Automatic annotation (TrEMBL):
This is Proline--tRNA ligase. It is found in: Cytoplasm. Its EC number is 6.1.1.15. It comes from Nitrosopumilus adriaticus. Keywords: Aminoacyl-tRNA synthetase, ATP-binding, Cytoplasm, Ligase, Nucleotide-binding, Protein biosynthesis. It catalyses: tRNA(Pro) + L-proline + ATP = L-prolyl-tRNA(Pro) + AMP + diphosphate. PROSITE patterns: AA_TRNA_LIGASE_II (PS50862). The gene is proS.
Amino acid sequence: MSKEDVGITVSKNADFSEWYTQVVLKAKLADYAPVKGLIVLRPDGYSIWESLRSTFDKKFAKNGIRNGFLPILIPESLLGKEQKHFAGFNPEVFWVTHSGTNEIGDRLALRPTSETLAYTMYAKWIQSWRDLPLKINFWNTALRAEIKATKPFLRTSEFLWQEGHTVHTTQEEAEKEVMKILEIYKNTVEEELAIPVTTGKKSEKEKFVGAVYTTTMESIMPDGKALQMGTSHFLGQNFSKPFEVKFADKDNVEHFAWQTSWGVSWRLIGAMIMAHGDDKGLVLPPNVAPTQVVIVPIYKNEEGKEKVLSKVDEIKKQLETKEIRVHVDDRSGLSPGYKFNDWELKGVPLRIEIGPKDIEKQSIVIAKRHNREKSTLSFNEIEKIFTILQEIQKEMLEKAKEQAKENTIEISNYDEFKSKIERGGFFNAPWCGKLECEEKIKEETGADIRVIPFGSENEDLKCMYCKEQSLSKPVFARGY
């Protein structure tokens, strides 16, 4: 028996980091590549990404966004056009310096992000107001030198993501786009992955380098650490000016354009694993599960096998007419108990058990993965499984919301904050808006401002750190 056939050997509460890694590997979502910091996606892991991609693509298309492709190599001379932006990525950049044995001269960066490349092309494509708005999304990989403290899906040197880049004639239109995208992200993560998020803005210190401001969505994980789930940036004219992204208006007067950029990565898969998994392994929300229902036939002899498999095939076809993703586990030489544990490890939302006695009773046994409840359904109730999957999806989101609520703390006393931050959580605390207070809090506690929630303006309280008048109540937390 191989190591990956052994179940999870640590408790989620006892060793969260080791538990997480075991779930990724043993549920066969991904594996480590030969190069440090890189992972290989296995079919189930990639299927989840494809599901998210499909959902995003449909929503992007409704918003007038089309997909394109960008190459991975960016000349260093191009990056120098927006030095402040690129300086933020410089320590993480992989460089190509040779072609074969020959030096190439102008070094080539392996894309850490694509603003400079995309906007060089946009400057060529845009001449007049008739070319705008220009809205393109790119499904890419990005590379950043994450060699230390790597974690599958959460922190790797190469990762899958989408990055959108839009160009507009007015500031107002661009800012509306920023919020539209953030809303698409929020709805998708909550509806597909059953993970609640808090949306708002990043502080000046934490915003995307080169942006006027950054909007973000943040989630609190069961271990009390925050995870950035996605960002949408208003770039203003900070890139259009150095890259000369200009348009002529209806009076043939030339203007610099207004721009946005935004992205999510396969970090969303890591969040899903952490938010829902348990000591048995992965727990998948039905909407993104590669297999939504697994059928385990139970029989002792050939006569029973033929009878059971005939009924199983009938049930499978019935479920597939409802577009439910079904798998029949008819592997020989393995006990039903082994198969049950195997599918629980892989997180399949619903298991159907059926044997000769069940056929006599004209019923099946169903087992829900998220709460491990078992019940029976009669043969004429099979179609209820579609509704049951919808209920599971809803229940998983409600449970995650409850966990997030339990991990969210209102606080205004800094000494109390310091004593509680070790346990983790989202801390809603008053802040004066000053960079020095933000930096001191980070330096002394390891917690930073994850998000300043929309509507969190507050001038009635005193800053948690300096006791001067507060401006807002950001979420402070330690993060991944």
